[in-house]
Amino acid sequence: MSPYAHYTAGNLRLGLEVEYTSATYGSNHDLNWKPQQTQLVENYRLLCSVYYFF
């Protein structure tokens, strides 16, 4: 999920986006390769953008 907002004034556009990602890592697999011990890792990013249209 990445919500995005932008504001345009004439030839200039400013944008802001928030990004969330996650992954689960595991170890100690059983006979079916299903991990028994898992750890969730999360990441949040704030992306800013500036566009100038000419």
What tags apply to this protein structure?
54 residues; mainly beta; three-stranded antiparallel sheet; rod-shaped
Summarize the structure.
The protein has 54 residues and is mainly beta. It has strands spanning 4-9, 12-29, 35-52.
Topology:
Elements: E1 4-9, E2 12-29, E3 35-52
Antiparallel strand pairs: 1-2, 2-3
First-to-last CA distance: 31 Å
Biggest sheet, strands in spatial order?
1-2-3
Q: SSE order in H/E notation? A: EEE
How many domains make up the 3D coordinates? 1
* Arithmetic mean pLDDT: 91
- Principal-axis shape equals rod-shaped
Identify low-pLDDT runs. Answer: none
Rg of Cα set: 20 Å
- The amount of helix comes to under 10%
* Percent of residues in beta strands: over 45%
Strand-pairing-aware structural class: mainly beta
Number of helices in the DSSP assignment: 0
* DSSP summary, beta strand count: 3
Biggest sheet character: 3 strands, antiparallel
